Amino acid sequence: LLMSNATNAIFLGGRGGTGKTQTVEDMLAAAGKEDGNGYFKITGSATPAGIYRLLFQHRKEILLFDDSDSALQDQEGRNLFKAASDTKKVRKISWSKGGKSYIDPDDYDEDSESNDPDILPRSFEFTGKIIFISNLPLAKLDPDGALRTRGYVISVDPTNEEIYDFMLKICGKIPLDVDYTLDKNKRMEVVELLRTRKMAEKTANLRSLVRGLNTRAGIELSGGTAEEWQKFVKLFA
């Protein structure tokens, strides 16, 4: 949707461990883009002032915010995302705080060699795109519905069985940290073992697949038995 200019922003919310980040990065890679070359990834917390700086520095690019939930919980941060994700091709982003660190845009010369990198214009034109990945439920991700009127807000909330079915589809593509090869059948056996565990509804996650595969690979590499890897996967994956 971003590549076709159907929207300026996509907000993905819902339970963690469902592969949202990997899916987005795979789609960006399929479009010939990588972090630092085609899009810029921001991970972790970000203050409103930090968000403003990032939007300015990458105002013509795709910004991928991952696990930055706090950025939406601050009203000033939400306002910046609302402005950046508006439906207009060119959006105006403004900042009224910051004292001497911000100057009138008419006085800002980005091409000047003497330009202070800490100085930013108080407003600028933004033509970039926003991808925001969160583990927040929809009610907290977009409580007032403002983001939904601008970009796409999508809730990813699969059941445990849907997660396990998805594991079967992707288990052959998971890279191992252990220098050992597991064929597709062995990988599928790990998935089915994970499925047998008694889990609370909507608690299954893809990280357990990665741990499970590496656990089996590591134990087999060291000469361990099937009983050993199965026990460890059940208890610790």
Overview of this structure, please?
With 237 residues, the protein is α/β, with parallel strands linked by helices. The protein has helices at residues 20-30, 48-57, 70-73, 75-84, 138-141, 160-170, 184-196, 206-221, 226-236; strands at 9-14, 34-35, 38-43, 62-66, 91-94, 102-103, 120-121, 123-126, 129-133, 152-156. The strands form three sheets. It has a six-stranded parallel sheet, with helices on one face. A two-stranded antiparallel ribbon has the order 5-8. Strands 6-7 form a two-stranded parallel sheet. Helix 2 links the parallel strand 3 and strand 4 (62-66). The longest helix is centred in the last third of the chain and has 16 residues, at 206-221.
Which stretches are low in confidence, meaning pLDDT under 50 for 5 or more residues running? none
Helix-strand makeup class: alpha/beta
Overall shape: it is: elongated
Helix share bin: 25-40%
Let me know the average pLDDT.
91
Number of distinct helices: 9
How far the N terminus sits from the C terminus, by CA atoms, comes to 35 Å
CA-based gyration radius: 22 Å
For the largest sheet, list the strands in their spatial order: 2-3-4-9-1-10
Sketch the major β-sheet: 6 strands, parallel
Give the topology string: H per helix, E per strand.
Answer: EHEEHEHHEEEEEHEHHHH
Quantity of strands, as a count = 10
Beta percentage is: 15-25%
